[in-house]
Amino acid sequence: MHEAKAPKRFEADKTEWDRIAETREFKDLMATKKIFIVPAFVFFIVYYFLLPLLVGYAPQFMATKVIGEVNLAYLFALSQFFMAWTVAWLYVKAAGNFDRLAQDIIEKAETRTAQQGGQ
Amino acid sequence: MSTALVMFLGFIAVTLGITYWASKRSAGTSAYFAASRRVTGWQNGIAVAGDYMSAASFLGIAGIIAFQGYDGFMFSVGWLVAYLTVLLVVAEPLRNAGRYTMADVLAYRLKPRPVRAMASISTLTVSTFYMIAQMVGAGALVALLLKDSGISYRTAVIGVGVLMIVYVVFGGMLATTWVQIIKAILLMAGTILLSILVLAHFHFSLGDFFNAIAHVTYHDKGQEVVKDFLTPGLRYKPPYGALDLISLGLALIFGTAGLPHILVRFYTVPDAKTARASVVWAMVLIGSFYIMTTFLGFGAATIVGRDFISTHGGTNMSAPLLAQALAGNIFFAFISAIAFATILAVVAGLTISASTSFAHDLWTNVIHRGEERKPGEEVLVARISAFVVGAVAMAVAILLGPTANVAFLVALAFAVAASANLPVIVLSIFWRRFNTTGAVTGLAVGLLASIGLILLSPSLMAIDPPTVTGAARHLIQAKAIFPLENPGILSIPLGFLGAILGTLLSHEPTSEHKFNELLVRSNTGLGAERAGAH
């Protein structure tokens, strides 16, 4: 089987997972993630649902022509694509930071388990 | 032999070659189900796009925009923005904590057997419905495109079904991935070419193009009408249009992150970081594609026109007919071949996710309590179930026939994914108190609410005039009880409510016991499945 040749997976018992979950490093990681992800999620949901809300309940307003024949409805729909790409790009930038914090936690956990000689 | 048939055969030859190559690299469980987790970020990104952009989005969306203008473009927007849910909420935790299926993440801290059984039922429901919709569409389309070569609906369905079974049974996830990559590249190339030709038709003047969109002429009940196709409201009309639009948005935004065939793709990459990169790659492709539906859809509306499309195969033929109008029969054949590749890649993705769930969740973990009795048994069962799933989808598609009203099955798949799958995935990752009863009731309520509301919706309930016959008639000849095409606005809250109430009304301390482990695993990637060696 191919898995047999793969590098060994990290294994630990419950007390070790609970211990990691309580460390300051892990709590920092969770807080750092939340600071970005929660506002980003709320922002994109609000921005997106404004589109069906406005198109559905204010179609006359959305039919207002802005540039030549191009109306507000089309421009707002088009802006959604750039909104999605921008949020994704910002997330990738922020996630570089999550990766560093997570890597630190992984290294500490693996060193600790190795020192205990269990695995 | 028509040019279209030659191009179809060319695509089949290339993909069968890939399947042969992949079949030699698909020994072992992780190789078969997850391409040994060695797919790179950009490859997986393109494959996600190829898995996602179905015939419904290529042919369907061009047709909806060609006939109903701006409202059709609303689908395009939702199909991309939905990937932010995948990116921010689902992809990385899933890759970190799971192995082969969505249920892996749920089974971590909940009681594995009931949770896997329910999750697998939901996965099989979504995949089978979606697949039947694609097969009926594929059969009708291929028969139409290859009319000159004498290919009937039945032959077309059998051809598509046999090919998808061959890809999945022999080539596993690796072959499926490459079929999806090739399809996505062809689809992008075809769409870019079509868009440039549409612009060239308007002498590269966006002003002229939008001017034409604002004055689309067609005949409605014998009367000539001129409409501004950029104005909202041609599809979603009062009194329920606005609610239906919001409901559609909810199903897309929350459903995409619960589609099993998309979720399994994130197990094919080495780690969560690569999963993230692949979502971004997918978003670049998917976004560019859906922006270009502006040219496909409005191009068909202005250059070909509703009148001509209606008498030459109907809405789904909008994009191929546009190609024919702009660059003749060779380009028509090329776009038709792309449509064919599109269908094949999507049905192959659906087949592999359904068979993986059956083998890994139901067979190994529910029936045999997590023990593989013989090495390779899980893969063998998956191969057999891929064959069975494919055969069932073919049989149902042939029984329903080319005129069957199946468009609602795609809406149903998204509704189930959003109302059953997504709530339990999210709650199991984020809510410490969540438990097995909650997961089972959430999945069951979400699934039943979606199916029930679709049954009562205008998609299945309507009074047809006597001229409509056979499978094209609505199932229930009465006025619809639930007025919306999309049940999401009611079924998603019901799914969450079922999961939350089920949890609060039961007591199960063991499910909280392992929450910390799942929390650490899903957020750091500690102990995640690694890529296999060659």
Key terms for this structure?
heterodimer; A: 119 residues; mainly alpha; two-stranded antiparallel ribbon; 5 helices; rod-shaped; disordered N terminus; B: 534 residues; Sodium/glucose cotransporter; 2 strands; 72% helix
Describe what you observe in this structure.
With about 120 residues, chain A is mainly α. Chain A contains 5 helices and 2 strands; from the N terminus they run ααααββα. Chain A has helices at about 1-5, 15-20, 25-55, 60, 70-115, and strands at about 65, 70. A two-stranded antiparallel sheet of chain A has the order 1-2. Chain A is rod-shaped and about 70 Å long. Chain A starts with a helix and ends with a helix. Chain B has about 525 residues and is mainly alpha-helical. Chain B has one domain: Up-down Bundle (Sodium/glucose cotransporter). Chain B contains 20 helices and 2 strands. A two-stranded antiparallel ribbon of chain B has the order 1-2. In chain B, helix 10 (about 240-255) packs across helix 16 (about 405-430), helix 10 (about 240-255) packs across helix 18 (about 490-505) and helix 12 runs antiparallel to helix 14 (about 320-365). The longest helix of chain B is centred in the middle third of the chain and has 50 residues, at about 320-365. The radius of gyration of chain B is 23 Å and the shape is globular. At the A-B interface, helix 1, helix 2, helix 3, strand 2 and helix 5 of A face helix 2, helix 5, helix 9, helix 10 and helix 12 of B.
Task: Give a topology summary.
The complex is a heterodimer of chains A (119) and B (534).
Chain A: H1 2-5, H2 14-22, H3 24-57, H4 59-62, E1 65-67, E2 70-71, H5 72-116
Antiparallel strand pairs in A: 1-2
Chain B: H1 3-23, H2 29-34, H3 41-52, H4 55-68, H5 70-97, H6 102-107, H7 112-145, H8 153-201, H9 206-213, E1 216-220, E2 223-227, H10 241-255, H11 260-263, H12 272-304, H13 306-311, H14 318-367, H15 377-400, H16 407-430, H17 436-455, H18 488-504, H19 509-513, H20 515-524
Antiparallel strand pairs in B: 1-2
Helix pairs in contact in B: 1-8, 1-14, 3-8, 3-12, 4-5, 4-12, 4-14, 5-10, 5-12, 5-20, 7-8, 7-14, 7-15, 7-16, 7-17, 8-12, 8-14, 8-15, 10-16, 10-18, 12-14, 14-15, 16-17, 16-18, 17-18
